[in-house]
Write a structure and sequence with these properties.
Number of helices: 9
Shape: globular
Largest sheet: 2 strands, antiparallel
Helix content: 55-70%
Structural class: mainly alpha
Strand content: under 5%
């Protein structure tokens, strides 16, 4: 697990160092902004609708701690609590980092009609937690993508007892996060690195919670 996480971290750093965000953003936007910013599919369905669905699923996981249904019946109360708690913790971690970030969204960048300066140099996004870029900030990591990525904790919960389900759960969470992130990318709401780092944060939170949970005497 540590090796996979380290490899993922290096890949994300390489993405930032290569400055791949802006070329990808130019696929969707120009000096007049982002044509799909107010798209019904992207804004109403894949943003507002997906966010409500994610919270409904999270609520279902929380209620499932005491009233389990389906797959949740196959795991202990401790693991059900871990699953619900990890989902909430991952979403909270991304939201907290975002609230302190000085990194602005693509649609705020001067190249796309805004006022912020683009400065993706290595780990600039993380450095921007303490400094701004001239825009409104609070755009890193991607909060909306975490509506999918936050569920990666299910992989850790099910991997011992239901490995096939664990892999499927992980694939679904990653796919959901990427789809939601791409939707926001097309709207100009996030750079791709915002989405990728959001997934990394959720994965690290899930891994840390799992490591802590396994130290509990009643974990089974």
């Amino acid at each position: 697990m540590a090796l996979a996480t380290a490899g993922l971290t290096l890949a994300l750093v390489a993405w930032d160092v290569a400055r791949l965000d802006m070329p990808l953003a130019r696929w969707w936007g120009d000096a007049q902004g982002f044509a799909l910013r107010d798209s019904w599919l992207l804004a109403d369905v894949l943003h507002d609708g997906a966010r409500r669905l994610a919270w409904a699923l999270t609520l279902a996981l929380c209620l499932g701690v005491w009233w389990p249904q389906g797959w949740l019946r196959a795991i202990s109360t401790a693991r059900r609590l871990q699953l619900a708690g990890t989902t909430l913790a991952a979403a909270l971690a991304v939201s907290t980092l975002k609230s302190f970030s000085g990194t602005s969204c693509p649609w705020d960048m001067a190249e796309f009609g805004g006022v912020a300066r683009y400065a993706s140099q290595g780990l600039q996004h993380w450095l921007a937690l303490t400094q701004g870029d001239g825009g409104s900030g609070r755009c890193f990591p991607a909060g909306h993508a975490s509506a999918g990525f936050a569920f990666v904790g299910g992989y850790f919960v099910f991997r011992d007892t239901r490995p096939a389900l664990a892999r499927g759960w992980l694939a679904a969470a990653l796919a959901a996060g990427l789809v939601l992130g791409l939707a926001q990318q097309a709207r100009g709401a996030h750079f791709m690195s915002h989405t990728l780092w959001s997934g990394w944060v959720c994965w690290c939170v899930a891994w840390a919670v799992d490591a802590a949970a396994r130290q509990m005497p009643d974990y089974a």
